[in-house]
Specification:
Radius of gyration: 22 Å
Largest sheet: 8 strands, mixed
Order of helices and strands: EHEHEHEEHEHHEHHEHHHH
Shape: globular
Strand order of the largest sheet: 3-2-1-4-7-6-8-5
Length: 355
Amino acid sequence: MNKAVARRSPAESEVPSVSVIIPTYNRKEELIGLLSALEKQTLPATDFEIIVVDDGSADDTLFYLKTRVAGGKENLFFCYQKNQGPGAARNCGMTMARGTFFAFTDTDCRPLPEWLEELIKPFSDKQMGAVGGAEEFEPAERALSRAIHFCMTSPLTTGGIRGTRGNKLARYYPRTFNMAISREAFERTGGFKRIYHGEDIELSFRIKEAGLSLLYNEQARVCHHRRSTIKQFFKQLLRMGEARVVLARLHPKMLEPLQVIPAAGILLLFLTLVLSAFSAVFISLLKLLLGTALFFTFLLGAAGSMTRNLLIRERLKLFFMVPFVFVVQQAAYGIGFYRGLWKWLKERVNVKGEK
């Protein structure tokens, strides 16, 4: 380990209660903003350490971290590894960590000042294994980012599975943009698995299966910067849909009806379109489906444009943009789900062929 990241012994420094673990890959500018936000935490700096794991960045992230540590950033540590993905980077961070609790966030997030203090409060319950918090958007975000945020957090579009209060249509699992786990949870589960996407909710599932509790604390908040283009958003949801199949293969109990709806909707629409060429009954069904979808997206547009402190022009943008983003979200997730199924079937065929 480089001398700049060598750890002080407990005799030189009090052992912190929380270790904030941040994986990064070619995101130096985002990392600078995140570290700045962590300096404003209400939790005293002596109570937490920050561990940045550079996952093989090709930019000057490593040089920046060395400079920060050499400049006397007392609670900052870092390590470098060849690119292995965020799950492996977080595992590396946890093996370095001294804290009783491990907090996670991403470089595209900006924790609010009370974030850490609120995130670890529920661990006063000894059975608590993992805690997740809320996500907000920056006030200056563009209309597209606001629309994406609405579609990714609203109970109308996700069933509340990302932490919204009230009844949820599927189980809640903390996610690493805003999440903390106990050291005991890490020791019982072994940390993150090396899967392509969704490793955070997979870990949350195993923590629950290990007999520990999961909790959503709305007061632990981060501002989460959203994808800046529709293309990026589409790719993100494509990966999420594909990952849902991977997770279901690992843990069949993780697959719930809500998560199949986008793929089922695509199949229903396709079959109705085909069959409407042969029967007037299916033409009527197609009209009913499209009419229902149009009415629902109208409601989404109205709900998404109700954000306070916005000019009428901005509200109008959201009214039309939210339905469009919702359609992209559902289509990408559904297509990703089928792509995951296709890969699984190909693997099964190849295995049988080898036998």
